[in-house]
Design brief:
The protein is an alpha/beta fold and 350 residues long. The chain has 2 domains: 256 residues, QueA-like (3-Layer(aba) Sandwich); 78 residues, Thrombin, subunit H (Beta Barrel), CATH 2.40.10.240. The chain is 18% helix and 25% strand. The protein contains 6 helices and 17 strands. The strands form 3 sheets. The chain has a 9-stranded mixed beta sheet. Strands 5-6-7-10-9-8 form a 6-stranded antiparallel beta sheet, with no helix packed on it. A two-stranded parallel ribbon has the order 4-11. A hairpin with a 4-residue loop joins β6 and β7. α5 crosses α6. The radius of gyration is 20 Å and the shape is globular. The chain starts with 44 loop residues before the first strand and ends with a strand.
Length: 350
């Protein structure tokens, strides 16, 4: 399906977002995967917060089934993380790191040249005879660019051979791509891991099924994070299948709760919803920005990681939980020593 995609257009007005601000101590940044800290994948901590009454509980993720009810539905993002970081060489011989963010045409990508500036028309060399031509800034961004890739292999095969996972400065060392995957991923396309679902394991999935909790999936291919400039989210490709729309409708009809695993799931479901809030099958591009003013109609709860101060994703969490509740839970996470980032701990909002 990706081969037939056309260039997306951004129609959403970039709302003025003022997400929660706080001080994040360096000691609370998860710098290595849980496995390197002596934990199982599902052994990270879980903060469970209840909007009604404000109760907070502290547990481990492997116990998540205890906090859900028979008839609830967990919706995950089944996008697979691709090795989207490439070494590139300028014509003068200087080397740089190029992150591939979003594939918007057969040979066209949104890319991020890391920690450097580039010019429209500039050509870069890639490993194994690949080439990149920088076309133009992406929606006026100062760091994201449209680029045309000329690769000797199909893009996924090329990346599997020559790419590596995107990792940021807070991560110590280099980790294999398997550390950036979820156990239920099946559709390659995310430049960065849909990390809210990383802690799911086979035994957690089985515990949910035994409890009578349903599991459904959407696909949303994530682009690169927008940490440097605090940019709002930009367009990403998504697919909400009929089976998932039906599962959500059935859950609603029987009084169950719909629990989104990550901001990507909320973004996809809110995009796919009709005016009444009912989720319908849809495939395409979303540039939706979920804010407290807009609100959320499609989910009753959310599993999410802990987001950086002022991160735009915090506006979505505020739309679900409310500003006061979010502030209380983040204070509890900071006081309790929870870990941030993709290898960190998790927060279940009910």
């Amino acid at each position: 399906m990706l081969a037939t995609l056309e260039r997306p257009t951004t129609q959403t007005t970039r709302a003025q977002i003022r997400p929660l601000d706080f001080q994040l101590p360096a000691a609370l940044e998860a710098r290595v995967p849980p496995e390197a800290r002596g934990l199982a994948r599902d052994g990270v901590r879980l903060l469970v917060s209840y909007r009604q009454g404000g109760r907070i509980e502290h547990t481990r993720f492997r116990q998540i089934a205890e906090f859900l009810d028979p008839g609830d539905l967990v919706v995950v993002n089944d996008s697979v993380t691709i090795p989207a970081s490439l070494s590139a060489t300028r014509q003068n011989g200087d080397e740089l790191t190029l992150h591939l963010s979003t594939r918007v045409g057969p040979d066209t990508w949104v890319v991020e040249p890391r920690k450097t500036t580039v010019q429209a028309g500039e050509r870069l060399s890639l490993p194994a005879g690949g080439r990149v031509e920088i076309i133009a800034p992406h929606h006026g961004s100062t760091r994201l660019w449209r680029a045309r890739l000329d690769l000797p292999l199909p893009w996924l095969s090329y990346l599997e051979t020559n790419g590596r996972p995107i990792a940021y400065d807070y991560v110590d060392g280099e980790w294999p791509l398997a550390m950036y995957q979820t156990v239920y991923g099946r559709n390659p396309g995310s430049s960065e891991m849909p990390s809210a679902g990383r802690a799911f394991s086979g035994r957690v999935m089985e515990a949910l099924r035994r409890k009578g909790v349903g599991i459904a999936s959407i696909t949303l291919h994530t682009g690169v994070a927008s940490l440097e400039d605090r940019e709002p989210p930009y367009e990403e490709w998504f697919d909400v299948a009929a089976a998932t729309a039906d599962a959500i409708a059935g859950t609603r009809a029987t009084g169950g709760r719909v629990i989104a695993v990550g901001t990507t799931v909320v973004r996809a479901l809110e995009t796919a919803a009709d005016a009444s809030g009912a989720v319908i099958p849809r495939t395409g591009w979303t540039d939706l920005i979920v804010t407290p003013e807009r609100g959320v109609q499609t989910v009753d709860g959310m599993l999410t990681g802990f987001h950086e101060p002022k991160a735009s994703h915090l506006a979505m969490l505020e739309a679900i939980a409310g500003r006061d509740h979010l502030a209380v839970t983040y204070k509890a996470a900071l006081t309790g020593g929870y870990l941030w980032h993709e290898f960190g701990d998790l927060h279940l909002i009910l």
